[in-house]
Amino acid sequence: MRRDYFTLDAAGVQADDSGQPIVRITYEGPTEELKSRLRRGGRPLDGDGVDITYRLQDAIQADGPKGAFAIADRVTGEYVLELNADAETVFAVTEAVADGDENNGHYRVVVRTDDGDELATYDKSTLLVYDNDGDLLRDRSLIPSGVEI
After folding, report:
1. 116-129 residue pLDDT tens
2. Whole-angstrom distance, CA of residue 50 vs CA of residue 58
3. How far is the C-alpha of 39 from the C-alpha of 28, rounded, in Å?
4. With contact defined as beta carbons under 8 Å apart, do 68 and 84 qualify?
5. Whole-angstrom Cα distance, residue 95 to residue 77?
6. Burial code of 15-30, b = ≥16 C-beta within 10 A, e = fewer?
7. Rounded CA separation 25/32 (Å)
8. What sign has the CA pseudo-torsion 78, 50, 81, 14?
9. By percentage, how much of the chain surpasses pLDDT 70?
10. To pair with 86 at 20 to 30 A between CA atoms, which of 19, 55, 70, 137?
11. Is pLDDT of 100 > 90?
12. Within 43-146, where are the H helices?
């Protein structure tokens, strides 16, 4: 699947928004391969079965840095999907989760088709953010207390 088949946006990340922050991934390509990747052993991957990461492709100080947002199968390590995304959007989510009281440190990832069919929903509390050299940016990541990395 090509990265340009995907777009990412966020909801619930403004200071006056209430509720859980949401990362919305919209897929605009042929759906059969994506539907297959969202399953393992004939069963849908659930939130505990996937890991969410973001890796900057540019230096964080760059003007409008971009990166790769990825969902990976936790058991196999295979990428379920990967897409290009603006760092500003991802950082808005991590900041809203870190600053919000009502979301209990969680955010939601929704994968849908461009015609609105929801393919997967994951409630997550971890989002690991890496710089362009592959080093973990702890201050930009969502790491629940008690988790060692």
Report:
1. 999 999 999 999 99
2. 25
3. 19
4. yes
5. 27
6. eeeeebbbbebbbeee
7. 16
8. negative
9. 97
10. 19
11. no
12. 87-99
Residue 45, token pair as written in the block:
């991957």
Do residues 63 and 49 touch, judged by C-beta distance below 8 A? no
3 state DSSP class of 42? coil
Question: Which among 113, 91, 131, 107 is positioned nearest to 25, based on CA atoms?
Answer: 113
Question: How many Å apart are CA 85 and CA 6, to the nearest integer?
Answer: 9
Q: How far apart are CA 125 and CA 144, in angstroms?
A: 6
- The single-letter code of the amino acid at 27 is Y
> Which pTM was predicted?
0.93
Task: Please check the confidence at residue 146 and state whether its pLDDT lies above 80.
Answer: no
The residue among 66, 126, 92 whose CA lies nearest residue 9 is 92
CA triple 106-145-96, angle to 5 deg: 35
Question: Alpha-carbon distance 20 to 67, whole Å?
Answer: 23
The contacts of residue 5 (CB under 8 Å, 6+ apart) are: 27, 28, 29, 83
